[in-house]
Amino acid sequence: MTSAAVSEHSWLLPGTLTAPTARARRTLRDWFVDSLCFLAAFGWAVVAWDNSLSAEPAMAMNVGPSWLNEVDFLASLVLCGALWVRRRWPVGLALASLPLALFTVSGDVALLIILFTVSVHRPFPVAASMFGVHLLAIPIYLWLRHDPVMSLWLTVGWILLCLGAVLAWGMFVRARRQLVVSLRERAHRAEAEQQLRVTQARQLERTRIAREMHDVLAHRISLLSLHAGALEFRPDASPEEVARAAGVIRGSAHAALRDLREVIGVLRAETGVAEGAEPERPQPTLVDVPTLISESRAAGVRVSFVEEVADQVELPPRVGRSVYRIVQEGLTNARKHAPGVVVDVRLTGRQGDGLTVEIRNPWPVGVAGQGVGSPAARSGTDIPGAGTGLVGVAERVGLAGGRLEYGRDAGGHFRLAAWLPWPA
């Protein structure tokens, strides 16, 4: 079925209108089918007319006065011409041809084609009613056109068989067209849904990369702020200390710019990465946690690190990356809100039991509130934060199927603990 034909018959789907809202242009296939129908109806009309002129009435196809045969032939020509508009007004044409069905023999094929069109283009109740109305014309037709050879009951049976076959065939064609249109619509819907899923996966991937970069930049910028604050409040520092701090600031700034440039390149790409693919950068895992601890210690943060993780080689990369981000966020929060305290980092777990990450630091003295205070604020060196770090950690742990706990414990420490599943 061509696209134009599909648009023409799309109103046949269940639950839609009973008539097309816009008439589609007749296709080449429609012209071919209509021409065949016209030729078949006209050929039958010529054969019936020629038979009515037979010299032997017993061999004629119908019996009746001669003037009726002439009117019959003219009526058949009208019905043949009406076949060209049968697609637009099938019900109206079936009703208009009802008076001709009382006596016509030459137009029988044209009448059957009109009724077939009704059964194809209209629901079953409408088609059945049209066939029922034409059945009412059978008694008058048999009275005017009784067959001298075939018995009455055989004639009635033959007429009923022809009408029933046309109705069944038309309903079959209608059901098949509905099925084709439904399958085509389903295919288009599936394609649209697939494109939507790809778009959503791309957006989710970009959001995930942005969340990764929030953790990365927050960590590096906190290091920058810490070293810059040391230079600001230690003007009497030795040249070696100043050079070392400046080197750390320069390295952290270059690393932050590199990471930011790469993530902006990914976010600006017209075609995102495939669904389920890992981001290009960064991809730290559990083995990179010691390096992260070393960077914090070099920045002056006192960190106590304990690692009791068995079978690290078997740890899934996604879990390892989540562990890295959790530790990174914990150290960043400690530098922001509790500078100068000792931060305890502990990693424990094994395959099948899961992996536990625990970060603990003393609650700052003289600071109240629900979150971790910032005694450095009194000196003007506090590091501003967006307040979304722990929210991002909670989302990350939730997506991994783990558990997260954070807040002030009974011992007066701020505790950030997460458990991540590690399948056996």
What does this structure look like?
Among the domains are: 3-149, no CATH class; 285-424, 2-Layer Sandwich (Heat Shock Protein 90). It contains twelve helices and five strands. It has helices at 3-9, 28-52, 66-82, 90-96, 108-121, 124-135, 138-144, 152-233, 239-268, 289-298, 317-337, 389-399; strands spanning 302-309, 342-350, 354-362, 403-408, 413-420. Strands 1-2-3-5-4 form a five-stranded mixed sheet, with helices on one face. Helix 5 (108-121) packs parallel to helix 8 (152-233), helix 8 (152-233) packs across helix 11 and helix 11 runs antiparallel to helix 12 (389-399). The longest helix is centred in the middle third of the chain and has 82 residues, at 152-233. It is rod-shaped. One of its GO terms (cellular component) is membrane. InterPro entries: HATPase_C_sf, Sensor_HK_TwoCompSys, Sig_transdc_His_kin_sub3_dim/P.
